[in-house]
Amino acid sequence: MSLTIAPILPSFGAEVSGVDIAKPLDERTRSAIIDAQNKYGVTVWRKTGLDDETHIAFSRIFGHIELAPRIAGRPYRHAHRELFDASNLDAEGRIIQDELVRLHKRGDRLWHTDSSFMEMRSAQSLLLCHEAPPEGGETWFADTRTAYEDLPQAMKDRIEGLEARHSLWWSRSRAGFPLSEEEIDARPHARHPLVHIHRGSGRKALYIAAHARDIIGMPREEGRALLRELIEFATQPKYVFSVTYEPGDMVIWDNLCSMHRGGEFDDLRYRRDMRRTTIREGAAPERPDDPFTELFAASGVTAFGGRPAAPARNGGPR
Ligand SMILES: [Fe+2]
Fold this sequence. Notes:
Elements: E1 4-9, E2 12-17, H1 27-40, E3 42-45, H2 52-59, E4 84-85, H3 99-106, E5 122-131, E6 139-143, H4 144-150, H5 153-159, E7 163-166, H6 168-174, H7 181-185, E8 190-193, E9 195-197, E10 204-206, E11 212-215, H8 220-234, E12 240-243, E13 250-254, E14 258-262, E15 273-280, H9 291-297
Parallel strand pairs: 2-3
Antiparallel strand pairs: 1-2, 3-13, 4-15, 5-13, 5-15, 6-12, 6-14, 7-8, 7-11, 9-10
């Protein structure tokens, strides 16, 4: 089998077909998929036939799969800790009505890069649709490599070497979750360069978006204005496209060369069941670790009511 690649924008996004990714893949096919991912940044796979187990197995071709956090007292829909629950459903599969949890999830409708609030960054996210609303609920993607290349030279010079502080709680507060600046100050932040070289392509990319709260060494409002300007530049229509889902469709995006955001939908009325695996940057071996639970443990009470579980030494319950 060989891959068929249909680009969506000239150098960003592609629909890929021709390979059954629910089955084990040979080395040549794996390399071709990784090459397509590195080149286009976002690949769209229709009617994959993946279930939870084959979704996880396929994801491993990209590297180490991150484990989703566990919060004590909170029940989960998934037994597999490799799956982040990106649905609007509770542990019993009912539509979430709790306003605080909904506000927390609404942060995903801002342009963001997954987990940029972590010191260890995420590379690919593999989002599989199990159930889609009849209208809305699409995902939008923005090309942070081409946008960087198109920046005026004066802006490239201005941002070279700058670093931003990223906080999950900052993006949640911008989406309406009730947190003061002081409360966010007291929670963990991660520090990352605004511009980096995307390893898979050798091209430079912006690393910005909704979790980015401040620029190191810059007055807060000036840093935020700069971040806003860069996000607005990188999300011009020529750099973005959207993907609408049917059950079985999967999108893989590289967080190190793109931003994304969820489209609006009536989340009190329609079910949207999306499950995500996420690959850690670099060639980290698969091993038990739990940095997400550690982050939540350092953040006090969460949107979900419970207190985080102590980080598990063996990778936690599965
Ligand atoms: Fe996301």
